[in-house]
């Protein structure tokens, strides 16, 4: 370190940018180029379409527990609900909300930028995403309804007449919607990556970035490399369906007629799909890891344990997730040696993931834990993620996966690990950052009700589901009927799960009400209600104005986790506060 | 999937190289203070514009797209119903046109850097015309092949040929739109060459990249790529 007199350092390392200034209400709030508005637009759209998927899960659960109770649900509808529920939740809710919602809001504010580097492309990204959502929803109104091929859309069944939507509009709209989504996401993704690379404030080295930014950044890089696989798969399947090619379609007799396809490889589709599909799990998980690290550190008033390890673990998980895809294909008849290879890589991922869990626990150890709502959700996330991750170790082994693969055990596993766990983080993050977005706190009592219903309720849903899976209850079945190996008690359990699913779903209405009510009646939050160190809490106005920082960009002097520093006057020191002894030290960039 | 894994390995190498310069082993909790200005603030090395970084990231995405498509090509080509497809002579002409278009852009880039608008204009116009010629030529090649009976759905080799050339053509078309915009700006009366410099530079990078992609695809269609893979197999075994 070199000591030099202060004042000789220019205030901003990055050149200040010329911002686009909106001229009308339309360009300010609708066709906005401000990342904060785009973030809110993304979030509202994602949550709205997520509610549709929630209702679909209700309908499925009602059918499973009370077959025939709702007369309009037949087998075709059931498969359409499964497909749309899965696709909406994974792509149009989780991916869009973490990257489009939190990414847009937090990246510029946390790295000290005025906005994303390409605001116009950012705006286009949202509108193209909205178009993708509308094309998806159009499936519900198209002749034949949406596709019922399952969210993995495996050919050949997805484009045959036996599958709902296979020969109608359903599958076409689904594939088109995915292609449009990927085009829109690429525009947004370029923004997130380049803003982290080029838009950071002076002093914000990579190793001073909050883990939230690290998580979103790494996830975006992965998404940019993984989504092209889905893109290629969708284009090729569209060719097969519309133009009669045989990329994926083998020779097949349908309803007594020989189709013109021949020689195609359905396994090829599975490879392409899971080359996207497995990184997708971590595209959702890594932002959640990052956000939860920040929530725990802030609300336990303690620096994150092992920051460097946390960064390395994020990067290593991101890299490893590209070489595990075929563990979704153990039952596709692959060569056993491949299964062995992919089981090994899969289990290796447990190491960096376990490091992260230990570090969260060690951050909590002897911390000044405030059981605020974000902290409750963060704690719930750790427990849920560990549970879901442990069953992942089961399913990662070929010999255990083969008998369990088509049972409810898999449904329970992935709902715990990539359904409930990230959703808990999303809730925690909304309770944490809502005061910055709106200037008001969310109501605490309503939040407590929401938390306990969601946390206990999701366990009541998915814990028994593991047991059903071990009994051998198959997944994807519209109706069980009389099956010798399934005892009547399993059906009782099914009813219990359904009742809990209805309760948890209804519990989310409390949350929605809280979001709207607090917007008008919530307690005034002030600029930094959680007494947090990161830059987004140091803006001159709350909610931050267009351009975020007023006249001067912030300068960063320390890392993001200076909580409870010995000798400091307060138990947190924001990142833009210089060293207390008045001497400006220089550290290498 | 080996093609895409090789591509990812290359991307990983670039990332490791970049991350290795980011002091990932530093201990940020011990280092309070302001940060030294990075090297690029020197006079001789102006900072890389964000849009250029953005273009490189985008090329990474495009690279992933084509490596995946080519991976699928090889996996599908292993099946029994795959018949080779003749390469029309016209493709040689098209390849030459695309290469010349890239070369013209390289020329335009040099002229733009030296601020010579009079020679920048014909360079850009040539590049644009040659790229349009390439696209028209590709469509003509499609028509010839279809007329000769090599239709899309007959054989997977045909399907891949039309799909890959189509995807590549769409990417060229996108680049053309940007290049056309730049060319129109260059022909404006009050043109400022220093403001065009970046645009021309970006178009040049993109054009070289798409040329490289095309050469690899062309090698694939002509069968050289298979010969190369066979050679590698022989060397390994």
TrEMBL record, chain A:
Family: Belongs to the heme-copper respiratory oxidase family.
Catalysis: reaction(s): 4 Fe(II)-[cytochrome c] + O2 + 8 H(+)(in) = 4 Fe(III)-[cytochrome c] + 2 H2O + 4 H(+)(out)
One cellular component (GO) term of this entry: plasma membrane
Pathway(s) the chain acts in: Energy metabolism; oxidative phosphorylation
Protein name: Cytochrome c oxidase subunit 1
GO biological process, alphabetically ordered: electron transport coupled proton transport; oxidative phosphorylation; respiratory electron transport chain
UniProt xrefs under InterPro entries: Cyt_c_oxase-like_su1_dom, Cyt_c_oxase-like_su1_sf, Cyt_C_Oxase_1, Cyt_c_Oxase_su1_BS, Cyt_c_oxidase_su1_bac
């Amino acid at each position: 370190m070199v000591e030099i007199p202060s004042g000789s350092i220019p205030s901003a390392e990055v050149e200040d940018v010329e911002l686009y200034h909106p001229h009308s209400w339309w360009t300010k709030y609708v066709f906005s180029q401000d990342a904060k508005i785009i973030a809110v637009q993304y979030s509202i759209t994602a949550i709205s379409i997520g509610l549709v998927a929630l209702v679909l899960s209700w309908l499925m659960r009602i059918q499973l527990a009370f077959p025939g109770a709702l007369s309009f649900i037949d087998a075709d509808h059931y498969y359409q609900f499964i497909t749309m529920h899965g696709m909406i939740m994974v792509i149009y809710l989780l991916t869009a909300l973490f990257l489009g919602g939190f990414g847009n809001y937090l990246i510029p504010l946390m790295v000290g930028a005025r906005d994303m580097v390409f605001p116009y492309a950012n705006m286009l990204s949202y509108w193209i995403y909205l178009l993708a959502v509308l094309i998806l929803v159009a499936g519900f109104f198209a002749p034949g309804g949406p596709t019922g091929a399952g969210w993995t859309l495996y050919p050949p069944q997805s484009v045959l007449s036996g599958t709902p939507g296979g020969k109608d509009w359903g599958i076409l709209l689904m594939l088109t919607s995915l292609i449009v989504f990927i085009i829109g996401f690429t525009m947004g993704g370029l923004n997130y990556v380049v803003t982290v690379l080029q838009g950071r404030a002076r002093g914000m080295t990579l190793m001073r970035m909050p883990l939230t930014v690290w998580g979103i950044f790494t996830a975006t890089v992965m998404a940019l490399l993984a989504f092209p696989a889905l893109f290629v798969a969708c284009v090729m399947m569209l060719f097969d369906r519309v133009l009669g090619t045989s990329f994926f379609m083998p020779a097949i007799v349908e309803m007594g007629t020989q189709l013109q396809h021949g020689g195609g490889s359905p396994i090829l589709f599975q490879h392409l799909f899971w080359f996207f599909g497995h990184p997708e799990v971590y595209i959702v998980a890594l932002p959640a890891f990052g956000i939860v690290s920040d929530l725990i550190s802030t609300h336990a008033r303690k620096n994150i344990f092992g920051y460097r390890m946390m960064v390395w673990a994020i990067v290593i998980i991101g890299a490893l997730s590209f070489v595990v895809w075929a563990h979704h294909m153990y039952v596709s008849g692959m060569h056993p040696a491949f299964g062995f290879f992919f089981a090994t890589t899969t289990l290796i991922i447990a190491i960096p993931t376990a490091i992260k869990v230990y570090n969260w626990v060690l951050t909590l150890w002897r911390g000044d834990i405030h059981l605020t709502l974000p902290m409750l959700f963060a704690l719930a996330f750790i427990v849920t993620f560990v549970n879901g991750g442990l069953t992942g170790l089961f399913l990662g082994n070929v010999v255990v996966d083969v008998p369990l693969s088509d049972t409810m055990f898999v449904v329970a596993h992935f709902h715990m690990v990539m359904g409930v766990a990230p959703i808990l983080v999303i809730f925690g993050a909304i309770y944490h950052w809502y005061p910055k977005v709106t200037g008001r706190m969310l109501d605490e009592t309503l939040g407590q009700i929401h938390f306990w219903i969601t946390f206990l309720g999701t366990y009541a849903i998915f814990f028994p589901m593991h047991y059903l899976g071990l009994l051998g209850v198959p997944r994807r079945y519209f109706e069980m009927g009389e099956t010798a190996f399934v005892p009547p008690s399993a059906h009782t359990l099914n009813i219990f799960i359904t009742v809990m699913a209805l309760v948890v779903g209804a519990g989310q209405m409390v949350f929605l009400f809280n979001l709207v009510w607090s917007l008008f009646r919530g307690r005034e939050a002030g600029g930094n209600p959680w007494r947090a160190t990161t830059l987004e809490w140091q803006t001159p106005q709350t909610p931050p104005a267009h351009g975020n920082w007023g006249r001067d960009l912030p300068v960063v002097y320390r890392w993001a986790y200076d909580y409870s520093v010995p000798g400091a006057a307060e138990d947190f020191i924001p990142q833009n506060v210089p060293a207390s002894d008045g001497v400006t030290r220089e550290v290498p960039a | 999937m080996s093609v895409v894994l090789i591509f990812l390995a290359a991307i990983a190498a670039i990332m490791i190289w970049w991350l290795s310069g980011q002091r990932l082993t530093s201990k940020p909790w011990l280092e309070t203070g302001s940060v030294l200005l990075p090297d690029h603030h020197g006079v001789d090395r102006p900072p890389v514009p964000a849009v250029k970084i953005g273009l490189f990231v985008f090329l990474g995405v495009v690279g992933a797209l084509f490596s995946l498509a080519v991976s699928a090509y090889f996996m599908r080509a292993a099946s029994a119903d795959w018949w080779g497809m003749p390469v029309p002579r016209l493709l040689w002409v098209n390849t030459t046109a695309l290469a010349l278009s890239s070369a013209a852009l390289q020329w335009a880039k040099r002229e733009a850097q030296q601020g010579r608008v009079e020679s920048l204009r014909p360079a850009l116009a040539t590049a644009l015309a040659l790229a349009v010629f390439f696209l028209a030529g590709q469509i003509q090649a499609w028509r010839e092949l279809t007329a000769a009976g090599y239709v899309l759905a007959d054989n997977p080799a045909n399907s891949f040929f039309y799909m890959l050339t189509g995807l590549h053509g769409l990417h060229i078309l996108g680049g053309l739109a940007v290049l056309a915009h730049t060319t129109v700006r260059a022909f404006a009366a009050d043109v400022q060459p220093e403001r065009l410099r970046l645009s021309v530079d970006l178009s040049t990078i993109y054009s070289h990249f798409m040329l490289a992609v095309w050469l690899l695809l062309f090698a694939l269609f002509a069968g050289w790529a298979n010969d190369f893979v066979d050679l590698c197999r022989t060397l390994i075994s």
